[in-house]
Amino acid sequence: xxxxxxxxxxxxxxxxxxxxxxxxxxxxxxxxxxxxxxxxxxxxxxxxxxxxxxxxxxxxxxxxxxxxxxxxxxxxxxxxxxxxxxxxxxxxxxxxxxxxxxxxxxxxxxxxxxxxxxxxxxxxxxxxxxxxxxxxxxxxxxxxxxxxxxxxxxxxxxxxxxxxxxxxxxxxxxxxxxxxxxxxxxxxxxxxxxxxxxxxxxxxxxxxxxxxxxxxxxxxxxxxxxxxxxxxxxxxxxxxxxxxxxxxxxxxxxxxxxxxxxxxxxx
Length: 267
Known about the structure:
Layout: H1 2-9, E1 25-28, E2 35-36, H2 39-46, E3 65-68, E4 74-76, E5 91-93, E6 98-100, E7 108-110, E8 115-117, E9 124-127, E10 132-135, E11 167-169, E12 175-177, H3 178-186, H4 203-215, H5 220-223, E13 226-231, E14 237-241, E15 257-260
Antiparallel strand pairs: 1-2, 1-3, 3-4, 5-6, 7-8, 9-10, 11-12, 13-14, 13-15
């Protein structure tokens, strides 16, 4: 009897769904009363509407009705179909109204984030200041930036907090999609697009610039010209000799600097 019940619950598992999730139900979006396979399908469809004022995103917690993909019965959100008795998702979250048959993702609900995440609860911790879940490898090993995940990716401008894509935390504490990070590095961009701090080890590049400066003699007039610089890496402000190749920070020896106006001394 128990085997028969389990067989019924598992009927159709991994056989239904969309490109985002394998699940045995569709959702009725309360915002437009249309039926979609998941909220991502809804958001993709509405983002293409001709009238920009009709474009909108679905609030996952607002979903009240689902349609069983096995028997087409519309019903209130629940784990098991009230008509045919199948699990509409092997993983089910009542808070997020979220269903998924693919348990290999390691889904878990973070009460502090207020949403479901993937990757296994044991592999993540919630950073209260950053306002999001991070890999346990970053516990006490990252620069905290308040609500760093609650903004848009500085490269593709997709909202990061509930994005299904992997996210990378930079040395400075700012965040972006991992694929955007790799694309940025591929195009030789080595600074955070938000704060301009170096995001990779640039020591070899700085040594090459030392050698270039040593071999490049400036004309006599600007050779002894001094300028004030602000270092993007350590935030130190110093006065240094100008060079066409770059200005080196005296504090951390970085060339990731920019010229600024001289400081105003107190009278």
